[in-house]
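User: Structure please.
Assistant: Input sequence and predicted structure:
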Amino acid sequence: MQEHPVLGQVALGYSPMIDRQRAVVATRLTVFPEPADAAPDAQALLAAFEDVWPAPEGGPELRLTLRPLDPAGAKQPGAAAAPAAGVTPHPVSLNIAGEALLLAVMRANPPPHLMIEVPAFMAVDPVHASALRGLREAGSVLLIKGRPTVPVAPEVLACFSHCIVEAGEDRRSGPAPAPGVRQVSTVQAGARTAADVEQAFQRGAVAAIGWPFDDPLPKAQGRSTVPTDVQVVMQLIQAVEREEPVSRLEATLSRDPTLAFRLLRYLNSPAFGLSAEINSFGHAIMMLGYRRLKRWLAVLLASSSKGAYAKPLMHAAVRRGLLMEELARGNGDAEMRGEMFICGVFSLLDRMMQQPITELMTQVPVPERVQQTLRGESGPYEPYLDLVRALEQEAVFEIRECTERLLLGPAEVNRALLVALRGARQLDA
């Protein structure tokens, strides 16, 4: 990724947009200008984001892959068109938390594939009507953020595909929106638990924004029954830890051909950047070595979850691992980077497997420094994990505090986040 000095003038946070199938269909990237009333170079900022979310091939055909609730199957007014075949299903929505910077971005002719959120108070202000219509005519996907207190002019309302509301804004049981957004389907922000997501859909939302992580952790119940594919991955991790012969590892993997396919898919993804295609487990060990291969077995284990919210959890786990690894890149310690990757991926393993982390750590060989962090014993990687959580919650004050505690600069953290998001998107492809 290129160097973008403008990244030192903002704080970034991110969260997923989850559809009714509990799949992640978009990333919400929140941008806090530093200081709050500043307007950094909008063109430079958009260029940094395009490093992660480049324009799709064939033109700006990207649209948010959400449909409004309609039992009859007919598309409702105001809904975004479905994406063209071959277009990435993971667009980004820019939530710019500063009016001066948002106006600068709107004037900078943003590329149409970057969705833009516009606060309701700006949508009802006639001063911005012309700019909003111009963006829409240029192909931009606009989302109105918050429920307007007065009706929106029809020609302005037509510019918006969806309305984003916070959980506290909409306490009604039905999906009927407030005046001014009657034709725009709802995306509810602020989800913190699985119940929050379910309630959003019950109220008629087409998607929910947030990480459903705050449900109670699973309680100890002794050794739980582990699915076969999970057992295979755990045995592989243990065997790689012991550096067993390739023939024995391949025999273990052959018990589940689907796992073999998934592992080779990861290893051959653009995120790995290998010059030659990996075609077998033995080839993978020859090319990568045992230590590097163990990292991707950790991803494979995390992806074995079958729960209702497995996709958002897996989405988060991969990004946590890549982000923690990237945050440690400056220290030059390859072993530490590898451990931090595993720490990030396994930080949600208890929720994905519905087992306490203490039970899981008896079944999966994990370095001591990682175990200390995952068990909440003030391990050396805990400050990094705290920063990752602050970025996920888009909590700007906590992001600043964690960044300062780690003696990192804002540009370092933002660049690490964007590199991790780009790498994760390549794995998703």
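The longest helix spans residues 410-428.
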